[in-house]
Amino acid sequence: MAPHSRKTGKKDQPPGTRLGPDEASRSERSSPTPRASAPVAPYTLKRILTLAAILLAVFVVPSSISGTAVALPAIGTATGADIVPLQWVVNAFNVAFACFTLAWGSIADIVGRVRAFALGAGICAAASLASALVGSIYLLDIARALAGLGGAAIFACGSAILATAFDGPARAKAFALFGTVAGIGVALGPSLSGLIIEGLGWRWVFGMHALALGLVLLAVPVIARNTAHTGRAGARIDVIGSALFILAILLLTTGIVQGSQWGWGSARVIGLVAGTVIVLAVFATVEQRRDDPMLDLSLLRDRRFVGLCLVPVAASFGFVTILTYLPSYLTVVGGYGAGTAGLIMVLLTFPVVACPMLAAALVNRGVSALLLIYISLACLVIGDLALLLFSPTVAIPVVALPMLVTGAGMGLSAGLVDRLALDIVDESKTGMAAGFLNTLRLGSEAIAVALYASLLTTLLTSHIRDGIGDFPGAGDAAAVANDVAGGHTAGATSAIDAGDGGSTAFLDFLITSYDGAFHTVILALGGICLLLFLLIGTLLRSGNHSSVITKR
User: Fold this and answer.
1) In 10 A of CB 145, how many CB atoms?
2) pTM higher than 0.85 for the full model?
3) What tens digit of pLDDT does each residue of 430-470 get?
4) How far is CA 322 from the centre of its chain?
5) Within 10 A of 301 (CB to CB), how many other CB atoms are there?
6) How far apart are CA 418 and CA 396, in angstroms?
7) Which of 69, 162, 221, 272 could be joined to 255 by an S-S link, Cβ 3.0–4.6 Å?
C-alpha cells in the first residue's frame, strides 16, 4: 500500500525526494497544516478504468495523424478530389490540433479537466463519425479540422488528468504508459488503417475512431469520480488571448504546410511568417495584462520547464522526420517493396514502444530522470549521424543498430518528459503547461517534416540538374526531382529510351542523386539535434533543479 497525501495548493513530491531550502521555506509559509490520510492502493478499479479510457483516447489521436495519409488514395478515388483539398484531409487535422492545444489546456484549468476532456472527446467522436459519412471532399476537410480540435483537448487534458489522478511511482508508470501508447499509435496507425481499408473501406478508418471514442465517453463518469480537479472558481476564459494565439499558429502552420507548393521565399509564405510574429507580439502584450491569461508567461521564465518542453522538439527533428521519410528512401534507393520497407521500419519503432516503460522502471530503481533525458538526446544525435551508413547496397543488419538507437532517443523521453514538465509547475496551471508542451510537440513536428521535405527536394533538384543533360528527353529537373522525392521513379524514367540501357542508367543516376541528398539532410538533422541537446542541457543546468528532476 502506497501512502497518498491529500492535495494542497502545491504539487505533492514523490516519495524519497527532498525540497530545496527555498522551496521548503515557501512550503512552510503557504501549506496548511497536514491532515491525516488513509493509505490508498496505487491502482484501484477506478484508477485502472481512468487510465485505460485516457490511453484509448490518446491512442486514437496519433494513429489518426499517422494513419489517415494511407487512406488518401482511396478517398481521392471515391471523391474525385484534386490534390490540394485531398492533402487537407491530413493537414486540416494537424493544423487544428496545433492551433487549439494550448487553448484547451488553459480552458481545462478553469472549467475542470474532466469536463474539457469529455467535451473534446465528444467533438472528436462526432467529427470522426461525420468524416465516415460525408460525400464531399470539402465537408471531409471540415470534419477533419473539427476532429483535430477535439484531439487537441484529448492530449492537453488527458495528460493533465493523469498528473492529478496519480501520485508518486503510480504517476511515473501512468505517464510511461501515456508515452508508450502514443508511440504505438504513431507506429501502428498506417498498418491498422491499411488493414481497415482493405477489409472494410476507407470510411471505416474514421468510423473506428468514433467507436473507440464512444467507449471513452462511457468512462467519463468514472474519470470524474477519480479526479478531484473541478476548475478555478471565478476565473474567466481568456477569449482574446486564445483567439490571438490560435490566429498566430494558424498563420504559421498554413505557411509551413503550403511552403513547398508556394515556394519558401514567396511573398505569401513570407507574409504569413511576418503575420505570425506580429500577432505573437500582440499576444504577449495582451497576456501580461490579463488576470487569467491563456498562457502565463511566467512559465517561460522557468528554464527547467522550457528545457523540458524543447525535448520533444529535438525528437521531432531527430525521429519524426526519419519515421516519415525513411520508407521512401528504402523503396527508392534500397529497392525494397512497401511491405518489406514496413517490416524494416519496426527497427525504428520498436524502441518507441518498449523504452517508455523501461525509463519508468529505471527511475523507480533510482536512476536519475535527468540522466535519461540526456541519454535520449544523445541517442537522437548519435543515431541520426549513424544513419549515414545507409547506401544503395548496405545490408540491413549494418543499419539495424543506428535505427534502434534513434528509436530509443524518442522512446526514452516519451511520457517521462511530460511527467517531469508537469511536476515542476503549480498544480493550478497543469492544463496550461500540458497544452504548451503539446503545442511545441506537434508544431515542431510540422516544421521538421516540412523542412525535411523542402531540403530534400532542393538538394535533389540540384543534383539532378547537374547531370540530367546526359539523358536527352528526361524532362525538367524540378519535375523529375518532385517525382523522385515522392517515390515515383517509374514516372521519372518513362520518358527515357530503354534502348542501350538508357533507362537503367538514368534510374541509377536518380538513385545516386537521392542518396546524396538524403545524406546531406541527415547531417543537417544531426546538427540540429546536437544544437538542441546543448541548449536543453544549458537550460536544465542553469535552472533551480527540483528534486523531481534530479531524483536518483
Assistant:
1) 21
2) no
3) 888 888 888 888 778 878 887 888 788 888 888 888 888 77
4) 13
5) 10
6) 33
7) 272
